[in-house]
C-alpha cells in the first residue's frame, strides 16, 4: 500500500515538476534571447519561483531548510548585492527566555528602540518599531494613559518610563487567532512568525492585547549598508509587503547566547534578559527578590515579560 | 424507596464536584508557565545552556563576592584610567610634568552625595596611597573592585548588582557571568545620568 502511494504523483510533486519544467523552459528562452530578461537575472527569477513551493518552516526537513536558506542567501546576493548569513538554529533544551524591565531605572533615552530597528532590519520608510517607550506620570500603572510620542529632554521631572514590546506569552492569543498557523511558540518560549506562510490577514494583530505585532503596509526599505548580515530564518531576514512581523527576542542573537539588541543598548541597565529555567540567572533573581508585575495579567496570557521596581 | 434518593443526590453531587474542582484549578492563581518556572530548581551547567561557543571577554577580573550561582567576573577599571598609576605623580619625590596645571584634576567636579553632605576627594580616595580607594581606616580598596567602595553607602544597589537586578551583563546571557562594573556606566564623580535628548522618536501610532 505504502509503495503504491509513493509511486503515485500527488498534486504538490506534479506542480513542482511542472514549475521546474516551466522554469527551465523559460530560462532557456530568455537566455537564448537576451541573457538578462525584464525580471533581472533569470537565475534570481528561478530562485524566487522555487521559493513559492517550499513548506511551512516546522514541516521542513533539515535538507529542505538548508535548500531554502541557500536560495535566500543567493537571492540576497543577486537582488541586493549583499552577503547574508541566514541561521536556522533551533531552541536549546532547558532554556526558556524571560525578560524583566525596571521602571525605576529607565530614563527614556530610547537607545533600545534605535538598536532594535538597526538589528532587526526594520522598515525605515514607515518607521516601524517593535519597542514603544511610554512617558507616564508617577502613580499611573497602565501605558494607555502614557505619552508614547514624547520628544524632549529626558528624564522629565515627575515622570517614569515604561517600555512595551511583544511579551512572548506562554498562552499567546495571536497564535490561536492565526488561520494558517504561520505563527507559533517555540520551545524556548519565543513566539515567531514564518514570514512566507503569513497571508497578512492581521487577525493576530487584532488578537494581541498588547499591540505587539507590526504589519508591513509597504515594501520594507532598509539602506544596503545598514542591513544586519547575521540573520535568522525566523528573525531579521528580509520581509516583504503584506507580512506580519514582531519582536523575536532577537532570535538570531539569543539562540547563540548573546543578549538581545535592546538589552545590550540600554545605557541604564533597566532591561534584564535571561533563562527562566536557570535558578541562578538574573531574571530569576528579579522574580524572587523584587516587586514584579505584568501588564494585563487578568487576561491569562501569562506573558514572560515582567516589570519591576527597585 | 431509599435507593432512588441516593441515586438522585448522586446525580447532583458528581457534576457539582466536577465544577468545584475545575473552578479550584482555574482560580488557584497560577498559570502553567509560572508553575513551570517555579518547578525549575535544578542548577544548570553554565556552559551547556547554549551550543554556540561563548568567548570570555578581555579585561575582566574575578569579583571578590559570590552571586547565587557562584563566582562571577566584572570589567576592570584600572586600564581605563588614562594616567594610572596615580603614584607616578603623587609621591614624595619631586616630579616635573609638562602641562601640570591642565592635568591636575581641575576638570573634575564632584556632584555626588547631595547638597547637605557633598563628598570630597578624600571620602573615597586614599590620602596615603593614591593608587587605592579607602573606606574607613586601613581598608584599601583596589580600583578594579570599586563596587566595594560604592557599596559602603549604596548597599541596596550592591546587593541587587550581585544578584542581577541592577547593572547589566556584558554581551552574553549564557556562559560565564561577566557584568559591568559600577564605573562602567556611572561616572564616579557625578554618578547620576545626565538629562539629554532621546536617541530617536516614535511616530504617532494607533
Query: How many beta-strand segments of chain B?
Result: 5
Radius of gyration of chain B: 29 Å
Query: What's the oligomerization state?
Result: heterodimer
Q: Which overall shape of chain B is indicated by the principal axes computed on the Cα atoms?
A: elongated
Give, in spatial order, the strands making up the sheet with the most strands of chain A.
12-4-14-13
- Based on DSSP secondary structure assignment, what is the total number of beta strands of chain A? 14
Structure annotation, total helices of chain B:
6
SSE sequence of chain A, one letter per element: HHEEHHEEHEEHEEHEEEHHEHEE
Number of domains of chain A: 2
CATH architecture of the largest domain in chain A: 2-Layer Sandwich
Summarize the structure in words.
The complex is a heterodimer of chains A (310) and B (206). By secondary structure, chain A is an alpha+beta fold. Helix content of chain A is 30%, strand content 17%. In chain A, helix 2 runs antiparallel to helix 3 (42-51) and helix 3 (42-51) packs antiparallel against helix 4 (62-80). The model of chain A is unreliable at 31-36 (pLDDT under 50). Chain B has 206 residues and is α+β, with helices and mostly antiparallel strands. In chain B, strand 3 (133-134) and strand 4 (140-141) form a beta hairpin. Classes of the chains: A alpha+beta (310), B alpha+beta (206). Chains A and B meet through strand 4, helix 5, strand 12 and helix 10 of A and helix 2 and helix 5 of B.
Amino acid at each position: 500500500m505504502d509503495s503504491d502511494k509513493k509511486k503515485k504523483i500527488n498534486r504538490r510533486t506534479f506542480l513542482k515538476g511542472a514549475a521546474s519544467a516551466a522554469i527551465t523552459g523559460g530560462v532557456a528562452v530568455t537566455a537564448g534571447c537576451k541573457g538578462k530578461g525584464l525580471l533581472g537575472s533569470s537565475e534570481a527569477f528561478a530562485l524566487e519561483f522555487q521559493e513559492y513551493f517550499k513548506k511551512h518552516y516546522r514541516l521542513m526537513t533539515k535538507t529542505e531548510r538548508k535548500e531554502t536558506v541557500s536560495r535566500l542567501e543567493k537571492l540576497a546576493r543577486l537582488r541586493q548585492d549583499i552577503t547574508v548569513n541566514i541561521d536556522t538554529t533551533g531552541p536549546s533544551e532547558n532554556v526558556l527566555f524571560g525578560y524583566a524591565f525596571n521602571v525605576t531605572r529607565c530614563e527614556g533615552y530610547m537607545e533600545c528602540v534605535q538598536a532594535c530597528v538597526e538589528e532587526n532590519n526594520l522598515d525605515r520608510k514607515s518607521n516601524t518599531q517593535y519597542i514603544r517607550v511610554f512617558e507616564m506620570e508617577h502613580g499611573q500603572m497602565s501605558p494607555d494613559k502614557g505619552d508614547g510620542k514624547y520628544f524632549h529632554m529626558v528624564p522629565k521631572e515627575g515622570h517614569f518610563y515604561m517600555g512595551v514590546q511583544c511579551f512572548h506569552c506562554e498562552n499567546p492569543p495571536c497564535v490561536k487567532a492565526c488561520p494558517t498557523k504561520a505563527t507559533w511558540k517555540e520551545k524556548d518560549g519565543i513566539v515567531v512568525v514564518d514570514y512566507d506562510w503569513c497571508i497578512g490577514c492581521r487577525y493576530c494583530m487584532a488578537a494581541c492585547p498588547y499591540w505587539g505585532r507590526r504589519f508591513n503596509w509597504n515594501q520594507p526599505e532598509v539602506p544596503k549598508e545598514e542591513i544586519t548580515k547575521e540573520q535568522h530564518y525566523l528573525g531579521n531576514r528580509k520581509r516583504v509587503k503584506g507580512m506580519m512581523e514582531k519582536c523575536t527576542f532577537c532570535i538570531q542573537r539569543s539562540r547563540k547566547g548573546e543578549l538581545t539588541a535592546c538589552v545590550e543598548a540600554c545605557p541604564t541597565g533597566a532591561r534584564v534578559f535571561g533563562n527562566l529555567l536557570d535558578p541562578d540567572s538574573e531574571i530569576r533573581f528579579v522574580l524572587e527578590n523584587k516587586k514584579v508585575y505584568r501588564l494585563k495579567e487578568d487576561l491569562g496570557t501569562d506573558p514572560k515579560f515582567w516589570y519591576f521596581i527597585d | 424507596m431509599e435507593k432512588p434518593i441516593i441515586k438522585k443526590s448522586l446525580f447532583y453531587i458528581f457534576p457539582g464536584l466536577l465544577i468545584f474542582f475545575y473552578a479550584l484549578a482555574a482560580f488557584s492563581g497560577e498559570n502553567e508557565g509560572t508553575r513551570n518556572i517555579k518547578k525549575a530548581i535544578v542548577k544548570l551547567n553554565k556552559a551547556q545552556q547554549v551550543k554556540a561557543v561563548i568567548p570570555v571577554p578581555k579585561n575582566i577580573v574575578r569579583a571578590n563576592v559570590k552571586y547565587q550561582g557562584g563566582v562571577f567576573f566584572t570589567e576592570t577599571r584600572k586600564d581605563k584610567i588614562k594616567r594610572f598609576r596615580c603614584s607616578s605623580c603623587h609621591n614624595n619625590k619631586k616630579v616635573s610634568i609638562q602641562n601640570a596645571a591642565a592635568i591636575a584634576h581641575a576638570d573634575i567636579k564632584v556632584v555626588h552625595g547631595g547638597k547637605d553632605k557633598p563628598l570630597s576627594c578624600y571620602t573615597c580616595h586614599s590620602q596615603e596611597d593614591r593608587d587605592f580607594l579607602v573606606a574607613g581606616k586601613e581598608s584599601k580598596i583596589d580600583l578594579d573592585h570599586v563596587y566595594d567602595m560604592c557599596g559602603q553607602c549604596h548597599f541596596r544597589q550592591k546587593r541587587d548588582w550581585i544578584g542581577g537586578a541592577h547593572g547589566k551583563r556584558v554581551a552574553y546571557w549564557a556562559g560565564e557571568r561577566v557584568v559591568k562594573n559600577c564605573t562602567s556606566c556611572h561616572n564616579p564623580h557625578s554618578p547620576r545620568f545626565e538629562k539629554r535628548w532621546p536617541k530617536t522618536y516614535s511616530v504617532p501610532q494607533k
